[in-house]
């Protein structure tokens, strides 16, 4: 299993490739606010662990294993954003909060949060009820 830091890199590399078609060391460094030399180091580790292949001219290419975990990490991030949104967390807190919690939940918890998101999506009345409860709590 990748460490939290490896997960951040795989997630960003997956997103960059999805959005731009390629992931350069400088783009990864910008996305994660780290020094390019840290990226180079991590890329070497991810290559060694077979998440990606670093080719001199083609740049970074995710392996099947890297793509599979990359997609899972991006989906997990999106699900947690949806979850925080549904429970009424302020827009301005959502991204940073997800970055803070995403690496520390079991896949069991992620799946159950997925159920909860589905539960709210299936009937808008449920979100309305939650909103009413929150307004009541705020008023107290
Ligand atoms: Mn993330």
UniProtKB/TrEMBL annotation:
InterPro entries: DtxR_MntR_Metal-Reg, Fe_dep_repressor, Fe_dep_repressor_sf, HTH_DTXR, HTH_tscrpt_reg_MntR, Iron_dep_repressor, WH-like_DNA-bd_sf, WH_DNA-bd_sf. Belongs to the DtxR/MntR family. One of its GO terms (cellular component) is cytoplasm. Keywords: Activator, Cytoplasm, DNA-binding, Manganese, Metal-binding, Repressor, Transcription, Transcription regulation. It holds the Pfam family Fe_dep_repress. Mn(2+) 1 binds at residues 8, 99, 102-103. One of its GO terms (molecular function) is manganese ion binding. The lineage of its organism: Bacteria, Bacillati, Bacillota, Bacilli, Bacillales. Homodimer. It is found in: Cytoplasm. Central regulator of manganese homeostasis. DNA binding is strongly activated by Mn(2+). Its main location: cytoplasm. Mn(2+) 2 binds at residues 11, 77, 99, 102. GO terms for biological process: intracellular manganese ion homeostasis. NCBIfam families: PRK03902.1 (NF003025). This is HTH-type transcriptional regulator MntR. SMART domains: HTH_DTXR. Coiled coil: none annotated. It comes from Heyndrickxia sporothermodurans. Residues 1-63 form the HTH dtxR-type domain. The keyword rRNA-binding does not apply. The gene is mntR.
């Amino acid at each position: 299993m990748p460490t939290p830091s490896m997960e951040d890199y795989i997630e960003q590399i997956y997103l960059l490739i999805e959005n731009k078609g390629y992931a350069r060391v400088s783009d990864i460094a910008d996305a994660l606010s780290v020094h390019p030399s840290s990226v180079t180091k991590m890329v070497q580790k991810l290559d060694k662990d077979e998440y990606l292949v670093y080719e001199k001219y083609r740049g970074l290419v995710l392996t099947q294993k890297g793509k599979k975990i990359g997609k899972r990490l991006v989906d997990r991030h999106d699900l947690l954003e949806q979850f925080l949104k549904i429970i009424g967390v302020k827009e301005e807190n959502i991204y940073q909060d997800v970055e803070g919690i995403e690496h520390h939940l079991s896949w069991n918890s992620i799946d159950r949060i997925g159920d909860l998101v589905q539960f709210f999506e299936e009937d808008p009345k449920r979100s309305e009820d939650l909103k009413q409860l929150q307004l009541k709590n705020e008023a107290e």
